[in-house]
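Q: Hi! Curious about what 50S ribosomal protein L7ae looks like structurally. Here's the sequence.
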Amino acid sequence: MSKVLSGLGLAMRAGKVVTGDESVLKAVRSGEAKLVIVAEDASANARKKFRDKCATYKVPLIIGYDREQLGSSVGKPERVVLALIDQGFADMIRKTIVKTSEVEYIE
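A: Let's find out. The predicted structure is below.
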């Protein structure tokens, strides 16, 4: 498992991950979300929705991994979207992704 996915698991155990469409949108709107990750196999509509919402609220967005990988990294069934609500975890994951470039889109 990659370092990013391991980091997501650690953040989940620390209670710093929000999953699910509505919960993530609420976290973005409230300013609670520090980083949003959308699965690369999410629908085009879902990717566009989160890309636009994150741009509006100036929340960093990553599109990468597939829903199976995201879900298993946080110990849940398939997940299409996750939000990190802790700046420390968000910074750690962003730095790791920049080094490994395992994803298709970073904003």
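A: A fun detail: The first strand starts at residue 17 and ends at 19.
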